[in-house]
Design a protein that fits this description.
Length: about 400
């Protein structure tokens, strides 16, 4: 498909949605955005997709890998099938923005919003960048239709004043997760929990990963159990396992039962390892390819905005199945090597046969391994020769630094 970088939402609505295997999973019904303070364009959070039995679910925008006039393609066929529930700070483009009254800044004339376009930025994020508005007509005729950039009309953005949770969230939109975590810790406890409740699942998951463990547990405990399970589902499995490991057995098992089985299983696998071993600090979702994959396919996979730079630095080739624990592990390929080879070359032809880590390897051994081979990520293979995950250098640092290092960074 020829992917577009800008699309009007009314034209996206009704498009079929397909998973990477070409199977249809549903159709688009709306786009969810987050308004921001001032003239900054809203950030697109995701799509509302109608699946079987007219159930409407939420799909994060980061899962969209292709968009054209005929279809939407997703990076994964695994979706959270819980019915969509709109959260504070979220706005539906078709359901709430269309037909809104605005003012054209240049002329001061009133107009009505009739459509809105989302656009992909250079960083891979999507924003609601343009509006189609119509002026009032005379004598029953349609008024003039205009297209404007978001900041060329007034009446839709959040107000600059006020300290509601939604306004605070709007001021955090452009901050990275670590800075939002620091800002949250400076808020009164009651307001901190209000803001956490109003954040969307993906944003809250990212922020929780940057908070001290005690604060993670406290915030998770203030959420409804179903919401807490939703947030755990979108966390990296290793972060979710670390957080759940701090809870009582009763609370941990209850949350795991509430999670979607496909999302809970890798977390259960990670919880089986000691926290000071390679298995305890690894992620179970590295980039995994089969031996017949080409370098072009590998490079397309590592472009995913959901990957950290460390995990995007290399791909792992294994016999099917391609989900951990995989079939037999064959080797890894560094992205620098991939960039030097023809795109049609098979990844299996450029593998590094570096000896992998074992899940039981203690932290000291993992640290020496990274230092010896100058790595930013490393494979973890079990006794049966299956890839069970990958350790990234940021996970190693998290476990080497003092437990209160995040708190020290905030005070500094």
């Amino acid at each position: 498909m020829t992917t577009v970088t800008r699309a009007y939402v009314s034209r996206i609505a009704g498009l079929p949605v397909f998973d990477p295997n070409g199977d249809r999973v549903g159709k688009v019904r709306d786009v969810v955005v987050a308004l921001r303070v001032g003239s900054a364009p809203p950030r697109a959070l995701g799509l509302i997709i109608e699946v079987v039995a007219r159930r409407r679910i939420f799909c994060p925008i980061g899962r969209v890998t292709g968009l054209d006039a005929n279809a939407v393609m997703l990076s994964s066929g695994t979706l959270n099938l819980k019915r969509f529930e709109q959260r504070a700070g979220e706005t539906l483009v078709l359901g709430e923005l269309l037909d809104r009254s605005v003012t054209i800044k240049e002329t001061g004339r009133p107009a009505t919003v009739v459509d809105a376009a989302i656009e992909q930025t250079r960083t891979g994020d999507w924003v609601l960048s343009r509006l189609a508005v119509q002026e009032p007509g005379r004598l029953g005729r349609r008024g003039q239709l205009h297209q404007f950039a978001w900041d060329e009309v007034a009446g839709l953005s959040l107000p600059e004043t006020g300290q509601s949770a939604e306004t605070l969230i709007a001021t955090y939109r452009d901050l990275n997760a670590a800075d939002v975590a620091h800002a949250l810790q400076d808020l009164p406890i009651k307001r901190r929990h209000e803001v956490a409740e109003a954040l969307d699942d993906e944003r809250l998951a990212d922020v929780l990963g940057e908070l001290p463990e005690a604060e993670q547990i406290t915030i998770l405990g203030t959420l409804k159990e179903s919401r807490a399970a939703d947030v755990l589902e979108v966390m990296d499995p290793d972060d979710a396992a670390d957080l759940l490991a701090e809870l009582s057995n009763v609370d941990r098992n209850r949350l795991l039962e509430l999670m979607e089985p496909d999302e809970a299983e890798p977390v259960r696998q990670l919880l089986a390892y000691s926290e000071d071993t390679a298995g305890g600090i690894m992620t179970s979702e590295p980039v995994i390819l089969t031996p017949d994959a080409t370098i072009a396919e590998a490079l397309a996979r590592v472009r995913s905005p959901e990957l950290t730079p460390a995990l995007a630095s290399q791909v792992y080739v294994c016999r099917p199945p391609s989900a951990t624990p995989t079939g037999r592990y064959l080797g890894l390929a560094h992205i620098q090597r991939l960039l030097r080879e023809p795109p049609s070359t098979l990844v299996s032809g450029v593998l590094d046969d570096l000896e992998p880590l074992h899940p039981e390897a203690p932290l000291a051994e993992v640290t020496r391994y990274f230092a010896t081979y100058n790595l930013v990520a490393a494979p973890v293979v079990d006794a049966q020769g299956r890839l069970v995950g990958a350790v990234s250098v940021d996970d190693v640092l998290d476990h080497l630094l003092p437990e209160d290092w995040r708190e020290r960074a905030r005070r500094g």
